[in-house]
Amino acid sequence: MKEDINTETEQTQAAATAKGRKAKAYDYSKIHKLVFEKHTTGILALDCVLGGGYEKGDIIEVSSESGVGKTTLMVDLMRNLIEDGQKVAYVDVERGVKTSMLETFELIGQGHGKAGFDPTQGNIGPFQIITYADCEEFLIDIFKNQNYDHVIIDSITTLVSRASLDSSVEDPKIAVDARLQSDFLKKFKVFCRDTGKNLWLVNQMRTKMEPVRRGPIQSLNVFSGSAGGKAMEFFPDIRIRIDKGSELRRDEKIFDGDKSIAYGSETWIYAIKNRGERGGIKVPMTIEFGQGISNKAFLRIALENGNLISAPARWVTVNVTADAGRKFDGTENLMNWIGDNYDELVQICRERGLFRITQGPVD
Fold first, then answer.
1. CB of 161 closer than 8 Å to CB of 176
2. CB 148 within 8 A of CB 200
3. What is the pLDDT of residues 11-29, one digit of tens each?
4. Which of 2, 107, 193, 339 has the fewest CB atoms within 10 Å, measured from its CB?
């Protein structure tokens, strides 16, 4: 009984003390104010589906079928970000980036200074990392200690566990990669949001199957989706997909004669997840393998849609800049004119909203 009375007295005194004490002020310096500012990727079609560009702290997944041009897109993106004064590292899990491609983009070799890359300020890679644990350690170091702004991982679902390298392929490994991928993405979702760093995840497409029950009948739904489990659907802030259209081909001389060779593809790029922006709307993007993304081709379409140049024909009339009323014979001459006036034409299209993915109802 005495023990109960003492306990009750202590509780009463504690309650009285708490009542008379003022609540401790919250330290708001722990909270980061959200800043919704768009930053250009330097790729007009990609900026369009991103709603004007990326935001700092975003994790962005880019997926497509094999051979569409994801690596070309990512290396072009890397060059543009470096030209903008940002530090970028490329984790090449699949060893898809070749020296010749980096030389073409002037990221290494004699012309690298044109892209704004200073080797004394950091290393772009490509870095070959194959396990989630090694990639985790690398990202923490390169973001925190070396103050990089962006890391591109090509591709995220090729990473494996350290344990799988030391075990037999016949050993059971139930959902190991799915769990590691989920933990990895969950950790860096918070990390990127907290630090304003950006993670770009290249991913492959896979044929997937899921059971569907309609009453007593059960069937399989077969569909195409990006590799990875539910974590890949949930944790990226933005998910971009590229669908292949027609091939770009040209006749080239090879060792056994002249042949038609694919040198690129006309693709469709769109967002399947993008908070606050319209998803699922496809825009055209021309990829030249190992050479980059054709901004001029996208700009031409925007000019046509805005009636700033006439519809495709042998003779095309321009209705903008000091050359208004001028006619061009053939696509090559028109594209040369677009290149010569590129900056001015981009500014005009932005002012008129021609790069917005939705431009209002039809009049």
1. yes
2. no
3. 555 555 555 555 677 776 6
4. 2
